[in-house]
Write a structure and sequence with these properties.
The chain is mainly α and 148 residues long. It is 55% helix and 7% strand. Strands 1-2 form a two-stranded antiparallel ribbon. α2 crosses α4. It starts with 11 loop residues before the first helix and ends with a strand.
Length: 148
């Protein structure tokens, strides 16, 4: 579907500021989710004692904890983007995520957006794109709007 230019695009600076706001929320979530998971794996794998690099299940423990934190981050963004189109950082800076068809985004679009934005490289594209779209905007057929 054709991309309409009847909205105010969001600058790179505002996108980055919203990301920083959301990062603080994610850190709190990581503590709430990661602490119980790491405590649980410590008790399961090593009777409650610290799991050091010498432990045979050290790598598995690290993978479980990192995967838990990664899935928490994916869940954070997918839930907020598909339930109103705004994270708290986006609400604060009056930014809304909209599908290019003018509606809210689907779970599939949110997941595509998350994974295509993962390393942030595509944000730079917004500096040269006439509509200030990043790669993840283009790839997920969605865009950020500045709410008046």
């Amino acid at each position: 579907m054709a991309h309409k230019m009847d909205y105010t695009p969001v600058s790179l600076i505002k996108r980055l500021i919203a990301i920083v706001y959301d990062l603080f929320l994610q850190i709190a979530l990581f503590l709430m989710v990661g602490l119980p998971v790491s405590t649980l794996t410590t008790f399961i794998f090593n009777g409650g004692n610290a799991i050091t690099e010498e432990h045979s299940l050290y790598l598995l423990n690290q993978v479980i904890i990192l995967l838990t934190l990664f899935l928490t981050s994916v869940g954070f963004y997918v839930w907020f983007w598909t339930h109103g189109g705004q994270t708290l950082g986006m609400k604060t800076w009056r930014i809304k995520l909209i599908s290019d068809n003018g509606h809210g985004i689907s779970r599939k679009q949110a997941i595509a957006r998350y994974f295509s934005a993962l390393f942030g490289i595509g944000l730079i594209w917004g500096l040269v794109d006439t509509k200030k779209r990043s790669w993840h905007d283009i790839f997920s057929a969605s865009h950020l709007e500045q709410i008046k």
